[in-house]
Amino acid sequence: MLGEKRSGRFVIPGDKIGVIEEFIPGYGTYVVDGAIYASSVGFLSIDPKSRIASIKPASQRIYAPKVGNIVVGCVWGVQTAMAFIRIIKIERSFLSGFFTGVLHVSDIDIRFTKDILDALKLGDIVRAKVISEANRTYHLSTKGQNLGVILALCSKCGGTLRLKSKREKKLQCEVCGNVETRKIASDYGSGNL
Ligand SMILES: [Zn+2]
Q1: How many A from CA of 134 to the centre of ligand 1?
Q2: What is the Å distance from ligand 1's center to 122 Cα?
Q3: Is residue 103 part of a domain?
Q4: In this structure, is the dihedral angle defined by the CA atoms of residues 176, 183, 190 and 10, taken in order, positive or negative?
Q5: How far is ligand 1, taken at its centre, from the CA of residue 55, in Å?
Q6: How far is the CA of 92 from the centre of ligand 1 (A)?
Q7: What distance in Å separates the CA atoms of residue 80 and residue 34, rounded to the nearest whole number?
Q8: How far is the CA of 131 from the centre of ligand 1 (A)?
Q9: Which of 34, 95, 101, 153 could make an SS bond with 85 (beta carbons 3.0 to 4.6 A apart)?
Q10: Across-strand partners of 129?
Q11: Total number of domains constituting the chain
């Protein structure tokens, strides 16, 4: 019953699934200190008989981003002038991580972004808008209240960053207390993707 209830949940890398006393780690998972975490994006599946917990890819269908779409993705590369976003969701549809979007530093905020790493970092989950698909490259923008980083982890220890001051856009690690900044969406930390 527990397995039935807990399976089907959408997970992203790093989400805790359970402990090894409850489940057997399967495809798309990894174990740290007896706890099972998702290593891929998808839906949690728990086999009621074998108790194997695995991650099923989010979608078999290929949805291509279109200009104007709101997408959610994970930052997997940061350079001086741009960041690369692995798109995991287009509008309401989850993907298995097929498309990469490019977020140029000038498209991050209406305010000038001096250092891209003050606005986002590797591993952050961001909500962005597709502004161009020229040359088959999906150009993204996080300008706007509801766009930007929606979940970030501490760059020192990997703990979850919680909103410390909304006005200053300061985030604080709940584990080590490290304070960082991001270009956050207005609903940062709400759990909304
Ligand atoms: Zn920390």
Answers
A1: 39
A2: 15
A3: yes
A4: negative
A5: 27
A6: 31
A7: 38
A8: 34
A9: 101
A10: 70, 141
A11: 2
pTM, two decimals, is 0.69
Ligand 1 centroid–CA 161 distance in Å is 8
Kindly give the distance from the C-alpha atom of residue 172 to the centroid of ligand 1, in angstroms, as a whole number: 8
Q: Retrieve residue 72's tokens.
A: 């959610």
- Reported as a single tens digit per residue, the pLDDT across 146-189 is 999 999 999 999 999 999 877 777 899 999 999 999 999 999 98
Ligand 1 centroid from CA 184, angstroms? 18
The residue range of the domain holding 43 is 2-57
Report how far ligand 1's centroid is from the alpha carbon of 25 (Å). 27
What b-and-e string marks burial along 107-117, b requiring 16 or more CB atoms within 10 Å of the CB?
Answer: bbbeeebeebb
Q: Are residues 155 and 88 in the same domain?
A: yes
Q: Tell me whether residue 191 is exposed, middle or buried, using C-beta atoms within 10 angstroms of its C-beta: 0 to 12, 13 to 18, 19 or more.
A: exposed
Rounded to the nearest 5°, which phi and psi values hold at 36? -100, 130
Q: Pairing state of beta strands 148-151 and 125-132?
A: antiparallel
Comparing C-alpha atoms, which of 3, 88, 81 is closest to residue 41? 88
158 Cα to the center of ligand 1, angstroms: 6
Task: Provide the pairing of β-strand 52-57 with 93-104.
Answer: unpaired
Structural domain includes residue 176: yes
Cα(23) to ligand 1 centroid in Å equals 28
